[in-house]
């Protein structure tokens, strides 16, 4: 019978010494501990897969999941070695030396990898965003584990190490749902600034892309040397921002001129002394 093969007199197989002071019971505890560690690792993998599936590419997500899974397993194995009365001091010293050597050799790679993981979780940028990273502006084409690819407005592909992306200032032009642009429109002193403001406001109100909330603002900003300067601030969706900016300025100029208001330009009046004298004599 099976029971008979397990029990030998007053002792069980679990009481048998396998080696040193390690008994069958110790071995059973380690096996159970490792099984629990594997179950925990699989639960963590399921959680990560659900949490990250909308946050990063599939390939990158699989890398993160595998690294997490095997890290949990390795930690569990190291704890098990201690219960097996295996002296870890030698392994730790050897591992420490190897780790230092590898650390120096791969310092930048590890830094970029860790920064890449932080970028994945913090998500200051996403694929397709318009950004400026340390003076490089364009669209985020891809985010790898150690680098980020930017496609500039000139069509160039720029690879930036993730450590540089993470530690430098990032400007995301499309993170907000609205983006503002601004003009300075100078009209002649002889023109009515109130009429000009009303014409510009009507033009913005009629445009389907110009946002009403946040509301646009049009006001006289200052009295310049050659013109009454009117500030025009318009909000637009970030994806339509540039097209609207290019369109509206010319429309404002045409509408103002159609209503008898002209854009001022620098001019200077020069008086000649001889001409004044001639006019007095005549």
The number of strands is: 12
Strand fraction equals 15-25%
Mind summarizing the main beta sheet? Answer: 5 strands, antiparallel
Termini separation comes to: 143 Å
- Give the averaged pLDDT, no decimals: 82
State the helical fraction: 40-55%
Order of helices and strands: HEEEEHHHHEEEEHEEHEEHH
Rg (C-alpha, Å): 36 Å
Describe this structure in words.
The protein has 282 residues and is α+β, with helices and mostly antiparallel strands. It is 50% helix and 21% strand. The chain is built from nine helices and twelve strands. It has helices at 2-6, 24-52, 58-83, 89-105, 107-122, 162-167, 193-206, 241-258, 273-281; strands spanning 7-8, 11-12, 17-19, 22-23, 130-133, 136-143, 147-152, 157-161, 170-172, 179-187, 217-223, 228-236. The strands form four sheets. The chain has a five-stranded antiparallel β-sheet. The protein has a three-stranded antiparallel β-sheet with strand order 10-12-11, with helices on one face. A hairpin with a 2-residue loop joins strand 5 (130-133) and strand 6. Helix 2 (24-52) packs antiparallel against helix 3 (58-83) and helix 7 (193-206) packs across helix 8 (241-258). The longest helix is centred in the first third of the chain and has 29 residues, at 24-52. It is elongated, with a radius of gyration of 36 Å. The termini are far apart.
């Amino acid at each position: 019978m099976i029971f008979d093969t397990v029990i030998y007199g007053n002792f069980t197989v679990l009481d048998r010494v396998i080696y040193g002071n390690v008994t069958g019971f110790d071995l059973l505890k380690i096996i159970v501990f490792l099984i629990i560690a594997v179950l925990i690792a699989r639960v963590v993998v399921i959680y990560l897969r659900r949490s990250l599936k909308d946050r990063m590419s599939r390939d990158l997500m699989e890398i993160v999941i595998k690294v997490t899974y095997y890290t949990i397993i390795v930690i569990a194995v190291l704890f098990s070695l201690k219960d097996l009365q295996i002296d870890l001091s030698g392994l730790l010293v050897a591992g420490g030396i190897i780790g230092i050597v590898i650390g120096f050799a791969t310092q930048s790679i590890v830094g970029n990898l860790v920064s890449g993981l932080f970028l994945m979780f913090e998500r200051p940028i996403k694929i397709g965003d318009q950004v400026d990273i340390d003076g490089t502006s364009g669209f985020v084409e891809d985010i790898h584990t150690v680098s980020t690819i930017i496609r500039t407005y000139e069509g160039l592909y720029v690879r930036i190490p993730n450590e540089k992306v993470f530690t430098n200032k990032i400007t995301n032009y499309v993170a907000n749902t609205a983006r503002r642009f601004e003009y300075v429109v100078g009209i002649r002193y002889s023109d009515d600034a109130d009429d000009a403001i009303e014409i510009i406001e009507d033009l913005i109100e009629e445009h389907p892309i110009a946002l009403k909330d946040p509301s646009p603002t049009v006001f006289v900003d200052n009295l310049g040397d050659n013109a009454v300067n009117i500030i025009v601030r318009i909000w637009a969706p970030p994806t339509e921002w540039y097209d609207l900016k290019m369109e509206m300025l010319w429309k404002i100029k045409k509408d103002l001129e159609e209503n008898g208001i002209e854009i001022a330009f620098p001019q200077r009046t020069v008086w000649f002394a001889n001409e004044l004298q001639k006019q007095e004599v005549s």
